[in-house]
Amino acid sequence: MKKAGQSKDERIEKLRNLVLYHQRLYHEKDAPEISDEAYDSLVRELRELEGVGEEGSSVANLVGARPSEAFTKVKHQVRQWSLNNVFDVPELKDWEESLKRRLATEGLSSSVLEYDVGPKLDGLKVVLTYERGQLVRAATRGDGVTGEDVTHTARVIDDIPEKLSVPVSLVAVGEVWLSEKEFKRINEEREREEMPLFANPRNAAAGSLRQLDPTVTARRKLSLIIYDLDFIDTNKTKFKIPATQQEEIALLQGLGFPTGKHTALCHELRDVIDYYNEWKDKRDALDYGVDGIVVKVNDITLQRRLGHTAKAPRFAAAFKFPAEQATTVVEDIVLQVGRTGVVTPVAHLRPTKIAGSVVSRATLHNEDQIKRLDVRVGDTVVLQKAGDVIPEIVSVVNELRPDGTKAYRFPKKVDGCGGGGLIERIPGEAAWRCVTLDSDFIHRRRLYHFVGKTALNLDGVGPRIIDLLLDEGLIKEPYDLFTLKVGDVIDLPGFKEKAAENLINAIQGAREVELPRLLVALSIPNVGEETARLISEYCGSIENVIGANVEELASIHGVGQIVAESVVRYMKDHQNQKKLRELLRFLTVRQIERVSKQSVLSNKTLVFTGSMVSLSRDEAKLLARKNGAHVTESVSRKTDFVIAGNEAGSKAEKAVELGVAILSEAEFLKMIG
Question: Is residue 120 annotated as a catalytic residue, yes or no?
Answer without folding.
Answer: yes
